[in-house]
Structure formats: C-alpha cells, structure tokens
Specification:
Helix content is 32%, strand content 27%. By secondary structure, the protein is of the alpha+beta class. Strand 4 and strand 5 form a beta hairpin.
Length: 177
C-alpha cells in the first residue's frame, strides 16, 4: 500500500522575507501537518517550554528580518542528507539574544532564501541525529521528503514564482511516498 502527502502553506508563518510550508501525511486521514505535530508533541514537555518558544521566535526572526540563509541560520546535522535543522548552533542565536539550550531539533528543507518547508523533530539525545531513538526517524523522514520535493522541482510539478520568493504548485498535488 502506498502512502501519500500534500504540501501545505503555513499561513500564520508567512513573513516579509520567508514563507513557510509543511507536509501533511494522508495516511490515517491526518488532520495535522508534520510541523504542527512537532509543536503539539513538544508543548506537552514542560521542561522545554522556553526552548520551544525561542525556536518559534527564531522562525519568526528569520522570516521577518533575515531570510533563510541556509549556511548561516540553519544546522546541518550529518555528512549525508540534504535536510537542515533548526535551531542553528547556539553561537548564532546568542548574537540575536534568542537561545535554545536543549537539543531540540526541527528538521526542514531550505528551498531558497525565501521558502522553507518545516517537517518534524524532537529532542536529540545522541551525538548523531541518525543514531538517535528520539529524532532518528524524523531526520531520515526529512531527508526523504527533501529528496522527493527536489524531484518535484525537477519534474516542474513545483516551480518558482517570477521573482523566486514563493513556490507554485497545483493545490491538489499529491506526493507519493
């Protein structure tokens, strides 16, 4: 049996410089996309409340003021894999007075400086994301989604608007996973 997903724009996470999207899996008729699943699960962990709020503030900071500069504002988790992660290393965030101290990870695809697709994540408990029982599956899933979305760009099922500040796709586009 095949699984399918759709891309959803996160209207409440659309800013001057960055538009954020997520993926919603269609299996079991999921009503929540991957990013909101991440937020819902992390909100249930009181000890990371400040870090989660700071992570959301960081997403807004990038979106409103800076743009999604992949090498500057995102974390590359492994030698292999295309997905990125938030938050960036602490040193980057400290200069903006926003700090996420725990090993909170939100995996994403930085399509360009103006478009980021947010996936899922959790609290990383090992040195390497792919080895972590808490985030390993989300890390692998993010890399898989990134590869599939790159292919959709190549096939021109997803394209760029005229000034490359947003993506265009048929709203009924279903991604076979």
């Amino acid at each position: 049996m095949n699984n399918f997903a759709v891309i959803e724009r996160l209207d409440e996470f659309t800013f001057k410089k960055v538009k954020y999207y997520s993926i919603r899996l269609l299996e079991n008729e999921n009503e929540v996309n991957e990013f909101y699943d991440f937020l819902n699960r992390m909100e249930d962990i009181p000890e990371i409340e400040t870090d989660l709020n700071n992570l959301v503030s960081w997403i807004e900071e990038i979106g409103d003021n800076h743009g999604a500069k992949k090498d500057q504002f995102f974390r590359h988790e492994a030698k292999r894999g295309e997905a990125s992660a938030l938050p960036p290393p602490c040193g980057t965030m400290e200069s903006y007075e926003i700090v996420v101290e725990e090993n909170l990870r939100l995996y994403c695809m930085v399509a360009n400086e103006h478009v980021v697709i947010l996936f899922n994540g959790g609290i990383k408990t090992t040195r390497f994301a792919q080895d972590c029982p808490a985030v390993g599956s989300y890390f692998k899933q993010a890399n898989y989604f990134t590869t599939k979305i790159d292919k959709l760009f190549q096939e021109k099922l997803i394209s760029w608007n005229e000034d490359y500040t947003d993506i265009c796709f048929d709203p009924i586009l279903t991604i076979e996973l």
